[in-house]
Amino acid sequence: xxxxxxHGHDALRRQQLEKLDGGHFDVFVVGGGINGAVSAAALAxxxxxxxxxxxxxxxxxxxxxxxxxxxxGFKYLENYELLLVNKLLxxxxxxxxxxxxxxxxxxxxxxxxxxxxxPSWLAGLGSVGYWILGRLATRRPRYFKPAAINKLEPIVxxxxxxxxxxxxxxxxxxxxxxxxxxxxxxALDSGAAAANYVTVVGAHHGAFSxxxxxxxxxxxxxxxxxxxRDELTGKLMRASAKTIVNGAGPFTDRLNRSMGxxxxxxxxxxxxxxxxxxxxxxxxxxxxxxDDTQRLFYVIPMAHRSxxxxxxxxxxxxxxxxxxxxxxxxxxxxxxxxxxxxxxxADDVIAERSGVRPLVVPASGDDKLETDWTALSRKHVIExxxxxxxxxxxxxxxxxxxxxxxxxxxxxGELGLDPSEPGNDWCGEPPAAKRSAFYQRAATVGLNRPPExxxxxxxxxxxxxxxxxxxxDIVNAIESDPSLAEPVMVESDVLxxxxxxYLEREMVVNLDxxxxxxxxxxxxxxxxxxxxxxxxxDIDRELLGV
Length: 546
Known about the structure:
Layout: H1 11-20, E1 24-30, H2 34-45, E2 50-53, E3 69-70, H3 82-98, E4 103-112, H4 120-133, E5 142-144, H5 146-152, E6 163-172, H6 176-189, E7 193-195, E8 198-205, E9 224-230, E10 236-246, H7 252-259, E11 265-278, E12 286-290, E13 296-302, E14 305-309, E15 313-315, H8 324-337, E16 351-362, E17 380-385, E18 390-395, H9 401-414, H10 432-443, H11 459-467, H12 471-480, H13 499-505, H14 511-518, H15 521-524, H16 527-532, H17 534-544
Parallel strand pairs: 1-2, 1-10, 2-7, 4-12, 10-18
Antiparallel strand pairs: 3-6, 4-6, 5-6, 8-9, 9-10, 11-14, 11-15, 11-16, 12-13, 13-14, 17-18
Helix pairs in contact: 2-6, 2-9
């Protein structure tokens, strides 16, 4: 994939590299997935000087492969993880309030058949308990017999069904990587220095020499000397920090070993895949089923597509593609549980997602892990190493991200820094009054019309949830040039006027950054279609500056 050179829309990234190179920080965060991004946002909002480096693009690994769900984990009740579910549901409710347009409450219809690991009455009881643990914040659960399932969702195959439970949870209307970027943007707005495609090639703990002075802001060197490399140019840079936060996700253990950190926990990998196919269900509802291994999987809406997943397979490899076996397993499972006029085949797959979950286990545990693999907890653990002044984040889920950020702020305080309370505005969308004002402005240029493929009341709502206050810039541009209100390509609600915002404000380095992470175009369109679009080729040339 082509990348930006020394021209084009790379001004923001070059500015951030200048801040990183030679910078002295209170905290340096390694990793730009959800854990690193939310940590940087919370730390910067607490008044600390923060640097962040991500070796690829922001959210380019595990954090771009989730199910796009904001949930307490109904399935975790199977393993009696009541405390974890209670904590996740509390965080889910906080996210509902903080992101009222970006996160939607959706009904989940879980059909139980011969593969279900428990009777339907117990599932019904569990759904009520889940609702109560969720502080009654969503619609109440409902119980359906097979005949009622047929009326509600005729596509569900009820031949072997005993009942269905409908409960509610949260869903990211845009993709997970887009959600991560919002925390990076928040960190930048609070004064952090952060850049993608920057690798930490070395981190050494020890005092600086007397000749090494403070930076231009008067900050003194910390005990961590950090060597960085710009992966686009090969340039080597140096920074220092008082504390390092290890938010490297699947690479957490490797980074700790390189820094000489000894921890009480470690990471093991669970592989999960998703298949994106043509829209299977007209309703905005998630369908849930138990597969033949008695594990829940889902059919999840995404614009005018459906996403099938996920799986849960142990692996020792952080880089895991979708295999033929993975693909055929999911297709066979969904074909058996839906009444489709034509069974889905591999030819129906528009896009695929494959990632590894970094799960937390004791450091001294058996590598063979003879316990039930899928029963391993999805909780996160935050450890501090006072001797080396390192905070390590093990595991974690997107739903629990606000807790991770606040716990990291608390942890660096325990290591001798003096953060203030981040306050209530370190995350979330701008105030409702600003949103209303934007909708009024957007209506004057015709953006109150319904979107073509996105599930929203208007294009204005879509622009707001993606860009927040920067959406005003798009309206201003459209006022000057009405053609910028047109979609950038067919079957898309990404407007031409959005492209400059993505390129100038979001450190887009290559097309994959834009199509896969800042937007979800690469998830809802086939690669060959995207490559054939003249507008996409124009964007690629603009990135190259030719």
